Amino acid sequence: MGLAIYAALQRWLSMDMDELLCYSPLGLLYPYNIGDFNGNNRLANTLAIIPGHFWPLRSYYYIGSVHALFYLPLYLVFPHFWSVRLVGLLFLAAQSVFISRLVKLPSSVIFLLLVLFFPYSVQHFIDAGPVALHCLLIYVLLFLFEFDNGRRPLRRGALVGFLVFIGIWEKLSFLLLLPGLSLLAISALLRLLKSGAYSRVRIVKFALSAGLTSGIPTALLLCARDIHQVPYFRVMSTFSSRPENLWVKMTYLSACIFNPLQTLERFLPATNYNVLPWSILGTVIIILMLVVVVLGHRSALKASGKNDRLLARYISLPIAAFVISYPIIAYRGLFTHHVILAFPFLILSLSASVAALVRHATPRCRRIGLGALMLSLALYAPCWAYLSHFLPSQGDDWSRFAIHEKLYDETLSRHYAYIVGDWGYYYLQWIYGNHDQMVLGDESVRTPEQVARLQAALKMTGRKALFVLTNPNSSCDLDLLRRSFNLVAMPGISPDARWQVLMEP
Question: What is the pTM of this model?
Fold first, then answer.
């Protein structure tokens, strides 16, 4: 099922360049890649944790490089841009394993639930957040909170703190999840205290170990400096979201819950569709899932075993964590891939409800609950079917891939510098290409100074210019480029294609 959805997305949804953003460090494996000429270069996303020593630790200013490390083995085996969406499928599989351990359901059942849960699943496949790692960390941390035998609190706390730091390192938005996670952690620690597995001293040791292990490296990260000697916390302050109209913003982000197609918001500007029927469909799905949760919680409360009472807590507390987390994330976030970070709490509650229905519900209650679940997932079918109606924007147009195939040519890669002049193509060529390629990015070449900088780089490298541009409406000054370089159109590309190549002969 997961591979079928992956194939459908590959067939119907063109890749957005932001899907590749968190893997940009892999472009450093190409020895001749230079980078972005808008005041940046191969050091653009480096940080100096130790003064004077810059390391390529970031994929972008506000995104770490852990996703790139996860992707690296698959990238080395399958170094093609179509492999990047398989990462989301692998993360969903990993999440299903930890949820399975928490609620005692087969991981295959959980995996099927995750894959068919349209808004959540699609965000993992077209991950531009990145969100997959953060969602996985939520489940791993909950697993560590719950499956603690009370031994070695310092070691367990250090592991929790390290994972929290990994989340913060990858993106500071992980901090917005800490209130909801703290609620679940406190509940788990109180349970351990009540059972006698933890004493108050051990809880203090656990909390100190987790706090120091996450706090000290986070402080080092925030105080690290970029190549312009600007502290990281000041760089990040430029990306803060301050809504001018909070009500309008919260209403928009609420659509991420009630309109399942909102998860594809990057494709919506080029696609005309009626929002109302999809919002009605999303509301019906939510009501059905609430039926599952209510019946599951009721069944778990009626059970008498210790693990059954724990199951009831898995249903109710994640709902509370979601209620805490969603407004915080929505206030600071801008897009669906921000607020989707609160969805793991809902998924855990739904999974625990299914487990309670399977194990403890009366036959009639089980039929109603599981029937509501299957119907809710089946109602996502029109959403999956509607994928074929989405149209790419100019930057995401399919014609990029034909150009990418041509630019893999050995002769072109050795003798030309690929200058990407418009948004939408840069990371596609930067990460996936011939080993001998040289990629430069200089969006909006509009001044003689920019041209002079490019000409100096070309002279230094001994390569000729090859520009990759959108057609029409390029952000570059085409007249200036034609006056400065002897450019001709690359043969074999339709003049009507939305991406074009102009090159020196």
Answer: 0.90
